[in-house]
User: What shape does this take?
Amino acid sequence: GAVVSQHPSWVICKSGTSVKIECRSLDFQATTMFWYRQFPKQSLMLMATSNEGSKATYEQGVEKDKFLINHASLTLSTLTVTSAHPEDSSFYICSAQTGTGNTIYFGEGSWLTVV
Amino acid sequence: QKEVEQNSGPLSVPEGAIASLNCTYSDRVSQSFFWYRQYSGKSPELIMSIYSNGDKEDGRFTAQLNKASQYVSLLIRDSQPSDSATYLCAVNMDRGSTLGRLYFGRGTQLTVWP
Assistant: This one.
């Protein structure tokens, strides 16, 4: 079964609202998690590195005030898309790195549609 | 600029043939390389990881790495229709412990026809 769970699997929201996506490591502690975005027929684009207990590190070009990341515990990171617009519609995927750093597990992904 | 380049294909091979997927990367300090398989609408699944120059074999899959040429490839022997998917090359271009900070290529779409 999945060792990294994302919720919700899909969400539809109205333009201008905010939506939160959760990423949980189910049976291991993940001090570091990563958030990716994938548009149709495009590859995964790394958005940010989420570190437990500290601020996320965002990739160049990713708006940190629009994509809020919180990693409050060793098993949970959340991505909040604020003031969502239709162009934010995408497949959002998280991954988690095990404490030893040797293995990376991907979540199942979350489809966001902004209408 | 950290880039990972793949031939987007599509690549079409008959069942039983060898499928060859290629990837180049821009950053010479890269240490960790991965091949993922992604079905439409799903999250990527790890196929192979490779860290040292040379070949690494796992069942029908062989990854090849040449750091001097900044090139990594994936061979799929005895291709099956179930191998039809998009194959993503991913590279970790960081030194240190953030292994999961990956840069992905655009993917190569593989179709294996019976």
Remarks:
- The first strand of chain B starts at residue 4 and ends at 6.
